[in-house]
């Protein structure tokens, strides 16, 4: 971002409540429940006076559905970015194993500040943070002195991980 531009303000929120068609762990899927759709409408209402100029989202269906509801309520468009996807579940995909039990050591290492921690077959935290940071920087660069909202399945992970990137959160919603 040029030093002559005012910084963008980016709001980040998690998708609404979702239901899944299978018990198998996956990197994809999930559709909003009726409660999830209502959560998205309530989020749009909370953001109505924030002058959001665009909604960005990961490609995950539950995030896209959330983003489309919010964008329609706010009268703005939606852009999809792969970089906003949550961490890859790696070797856990296609199993019915408990995510926390399987990947708990990696999660604990991430929270403990180990940038090289990794879910077996999945993302290293430093790679995940770089991917999400790059996407959020793209959002900010395309909206100087304006506001955008990102429906990112990565959103709940971002507040815990931003310290590794040197980025700072300027706002959140949801």
What would you note in describing this structure?
The chain has 174 residues and is of the alpha/beta class. It has a single domain (9-165), classed as 3-Layer(aba) Sandwich (Rossmann fold), CATH 3.40.50.1240. Helix content is 39%, strand content 13%. The protein is built from five helices and six strands; from the N terminus they run E-E-E-H-E-H-E-H-H-E-H. The protein has helices spanning 34-47, 61-74, 99-111, 125-142, 158-165; strands at 9-13, 18-19, 31-32, 52-57, 78-80, 147-151. Strands 1-6-4-5 form a four-stranded parallel β-sheet, sandwiched between helices. Strands 2-3 form a two-stranded antiparallel ribbon. Helix 1 crosses helix 2 and helix 4 packs across helix 5. It is globular. The protein starts with 8 loop residues before the first strand and ends in a 9-residue tail after the last helix. Mean pLDDT is 80; it is low at 152-174.
**What gross morphology would you assign?**
globular
CATH class division: Alpha Beta
Task: Give the strand content.
Answer: 5-15%
CATH fold category name: Rossmann fold
How many strands, which pairing sense, and closed or not: the largest β-sheet?
4 strands, parallel
Low-confidence stretches: 152-174
Q: What's the total count of β strands?
A: 6
The termini sit apart by 26 Å
Percentage of residues in helical conformation: 25-40%
SSE order, as H and E? EEEHEHEHHEH
Provide the spatial order of strands within the biggest beta sheet.
1-6-4-5
């Amino acid at each position: 971002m040029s030093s002559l531009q005012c910084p963008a303000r980016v709001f980040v929120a998690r998708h609404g409540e979702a239901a899944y068609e299978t018990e198998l762990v996956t990197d994809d899927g999930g559709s909003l429940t009726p409660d999830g759709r209502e959560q998205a409408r309530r989020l749009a209402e909370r953001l109505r006076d924030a002058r959001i100029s665009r909604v960005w989202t990961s490609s995950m269906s539950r995030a896209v559905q959330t983003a489309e509801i919010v964008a329609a309520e706010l009268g703005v468009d939606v852009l999809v970015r792969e970089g906003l996807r949550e961490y890859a579940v790696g070797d856990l995909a296609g199993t019915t194993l408990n995510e926390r039990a399987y990947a708990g050591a990696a999660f604990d290492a991430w929270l403990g500040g180990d940038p090289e921690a990794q879910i077996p077959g999945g993302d290293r935290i430093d790679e995940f943070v770089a991917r999400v940071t790059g996407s959020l920087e793209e959002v900010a660069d395309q909206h100087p002195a304006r506001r955008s909202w990102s429906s990112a399945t990565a959103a709940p992970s971002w507040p815990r991980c931003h310290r590794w990137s040197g980025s700072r959160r300027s706002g959140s919603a949801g």
